Amino acid sequence: MAKKSKTLNLEESELRRMLLDRRTADRKRRVTAFGQTGELLPLDAEDTEGVDAEPLAGTRIHADPDLRLASPKAKRSRVWVERGLLAIELAAVVGLGFIFVNGLDLLGQLNSELSSAGTPSPAPLLGPVVLPSGHTAPSASNAAAPNEAEIPEHLRPLVQAYTAALVMPTPGPEQAMGISIPAIGVNAPVVQGDDWEALKRGVGQHIGSANPGQTGNLVLSGHNDIYGEVFRHLDQLDVGDEIVVLTAQNSYTYTVTGRRLVAPTFVEVMFPTPDTTITLISCYPYMINTQRIIIQGELTRISDAG
Q1: Same domain, 275 and 203
Q2: What is the CATH number of the domain that holds 187?
């Protein structure tokens, strides 16, 4: 007859005690292992379940393979990062608010300046497209006349509008009144404007060009073969010759720096300059008038007209 198992002779309380001891030891082993791998913080196994607890119904500890507890240092770093991002967002909001307020203030200033400026006067849409003094050559059968053929046909209405919009400047003490060029015997009056009618009366100053002695380009035009032939001999001027322009108060002496021939459409010679310069313009050659002769000079001396 087989012997009875020794376990069968144990009392129920002893059996429960053995199960509890085994389970406690097993729990300590697993907690120790979890603590070493970082899956759980170390715990005291004795505090998880009392000695008299039910071995089969007590608290159980299960290892989670994905469980990782963040270290205190990592948590502190994350807090500081979040605080930094919050500070950046607040600074951006404040900056946008400042830009908005500053933009409104600038807009108000611009509107105020525009209101105080008054109503702007309309300006011509087009400047001169050909150099002044142009005309057909006189002959025994035909008198000289403005040479409209120099102006492109599609631009003629605009040129007429530009000429009509010009306003004569208010006479002043420094307005050109006369011109003298000793090297070629020129001694003529200077009038304002360089259109056909103005050049009948002498040398014409281009409206909008600089006054004598003023920084910029003083532009004077005259005929070479009609109405006194005032600028007939401009081609005889050499570098170093003098051009004297008179005003009511002063005498301004310019020294010739260059001479050249250009097409009638080369209006760049009339543009303003950063220095105190003079430009003389006339048709060329004599009695043919297909080109313009240009004399340029710089201010070298100012004298009292008295």
Answers
A1: yes
A2: 2.40.260.10
For residues 186 and 300, state if they share a domain: yes
**100 within domain boundaries:** yes
Full residue range of the structural domain in which residue 271 is found: 175-304
Question: Would you state the structure tokens that stand for residue 144, as one six-digit string?
Answer: 């000289």
User: Both 186 and 78 in a single domain?
Assistant: no
Q: What is the pTM of this model?
A: 0.60
Helix (H, G, I), strand (E, B) or coil at 34: helix
Task: Give the pairing of strands 203-205 and 216-221.
Answer: antiparallel
Q: Distance (Å, rounded) from C-alpha 173 to C-alpha 102?
A: 47
CA 165 to mean position of chain CA atoms = 31
pLDDT tens track for 27-84: 788 777 776 766 555 545 444 444 455 545 555 555 555 555 555 666 677 778 888 8
Alpha-carbon distance of 200 to 180, in angstroms, equals: 18
Give the Cβ contact number of residue 205 at 10 Å. 26
Q: Cβ neighbours of residue 105 under 8 Å, at least 6 residues apart?
A: none
Token pair of 253 as six digits: 């002496």
Tell me the mean pLDDT in the region 264-288.
96
Listed in sequence order, the residues at least 6 apart from 269 whose beta carbon sits closer than 8 Å to its beta carbon are 131, 262, 279, 281, 294, 296
| pLDDT band at residue 123 using 50, 70 and 90 as cut-offs | very low
Same domain, 238 and 265: yes
My answer on whether 75 and 180 are in the same domain is: no
Say yes or no: 189 and 252 in one domain. yes
Domain boundary among 57, 80, 111: 111
- Burial of residue 238 (CB within 10 Å: 0-12, 13-18, 19+) is exposed
Instruction: Give the residue among 48, 217, 61, 224 at the shortest CA–CA distance from 132.
Output: 224
